[in-house]
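Reproducibility note. Readers wishing to regenerate the assembly model reported in the main text can use the exact inputs given here. Chain order matters: entities are listed in the order in which they were concatenated for prediction.
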Amino acid sequence: MSYMEDLQKRISKIEKGGLEKYHKKNEEKGKLFVRKRLELLFDKGMDIEDAFFANCMDDSLPSDGVVTGIGKINGQSVCVMANDSTVKAGSWGKRTVEKIIRIQETAEKLEIPMLYLVDSAGARITDQIEMFPGRRGAGRIFHNQIKLSGRVPQVCLLFGPSAAGGAYIPAFCDIVIMVDGNASMYLGSPRMAEKVIGEKVSLEEMGGASMHCSVSGVGDVLVKTEEEAIAYSRNYLSYFPANFRNKPKELEAKEKKEFEKSITDILPENQNAPFDMHELINRVIDEDSFCEIKKKFAPELITGLARIDGKSVGIIANQPRMKGGVLFHDSADKAAKFMQLCDAFHIPLLFLVDVPGFMIGTKVERAGIIRHGAKMLSAMSEATVPKISVIVRKAYGAGLYAMAGPAFDPDCCLAFPTAQVAVMGPEAAVNAVYANKIAELPEEDRPAFIKEKQDEYKDNIDIYRLASEMVVDAVIDPNKLREELINRYAVYENKNVTFTERKHGVYPV
Amino acid sequence: MELKANMAGNVWKITVNQGDKVESGQDVVILESMKMEIPIAAEEAGTVAELKVNEGDFVNEGDVIAVID
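Running the prediction on these inputs yields the following structure tokens for the assembly.
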């Protein structure tokens, strides 16, 4: 055999990945081969592959179970690591770990996004001394992720398991996209849980994609197929710059979608009646530009990326359709991470406010709603990107503060004529102030008294009174919100602010 | 399938009867909590097999409101 034939033979063997039976097994689960995934991910295949021959002296470990390299997404070069689950279930050996560390270092040097296509059973116990505890052991992967955080976008596509220590890869990413049925994250497997703590539980129940995207919040986006996951990640990155030094690329501006009903048609007169905030969002943003994050987790608060006049914007909106739009510990947590994400990459924020306040009661106090709420306020307050808050209807109590109320340096606070800003709503306020008085009155006189006091209260918090006191910067026609936002963001985008000087704040996490 | 309260509150209105057919996304009960109307909708289409609450009842987060088959 000539050396050229020998080289070719080696290349084609490695390119095939693991044994045929493992390819078949993956196919049955609807899982694509790692190289097929990369072909779908990049505009035109991988441009550079690193350490293709890693561990090539061992026939059973092609590329040591991970493909790393650089390719383009929407014309932008990105770094990628992708587990090959046909090679020892995508487990990590010494060279697997070294390859991942090196591609992260490349992402840091080039300041370009880092993507993690995860499908791995975890550490190879047989290799533990070489891959686990040392300076360039697996811990280094997480150390690098933490360092890269906020410098370049980090995206995780979870196609299979992400077990034990490996489960921290998704945790340190900006966003985790999970394929329903196949993706999972857990520190200890169900088998281990049964042995160690005596709990009998299925994998899906304990660490499945659906659970993580709706209950734990470790997952952000639940998709049905790998193709869908890849398409989502490509679209997601289109809202971002390559790194923190740059602003997001502008796309060609699109018109908003046309609707029969205008914003004023969909806003209910009654402050306490629900409406679907998505309908308002769709009447403001460029058509089909909404990329929702954490749709299934804490849906009483909507977070997502969108474009207005072709420019990226991060939307944080109360959803009165779900749990009355009340803020909970989970919604506060969700908002905090989303605002940090947008602020890190110069994506302006838009707050659409319709909030009765933070939830009260034993359950949420025990869940630490105060510290989670404080975390939301911190992230919002620290964000120095252009911030616009729009008071759609009510903004009560700390809900006003958390949604970029006037005291938190939004570039402006706009109000609809339907806005109601107060420490609490009229019903609660009248109850609080006149509880004794009401109790003293004969039963039949109570409704009239309550109505009179509520009307007095409403007059007292009249939105024009707040405009007169310059609490809100403008009262605007709801149907002209989009034009107002386009004008204002165009001006505020040149803002250059440093929040404060210090090493870093102490987060109320 | 059990339909559960997603937050603590009082049952303000029950909008279906036992035996009614419901669509996915159709409101079954409206709670009143934090002075807000909180619609609780069926997650899947089916028949209301059992209503576990009456108007005026207090329900905690996670309490079963209705059973839909």
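We highlight two features of this model. The domain at 2-68 of chain B is CATH 2.40.50.100 (OB fold (Dihydrolipoamide Acetyltransferase, E2P)). Chain B touches chain A at residues 6-8, 33-39, 60-61 (CB under 8 Å).
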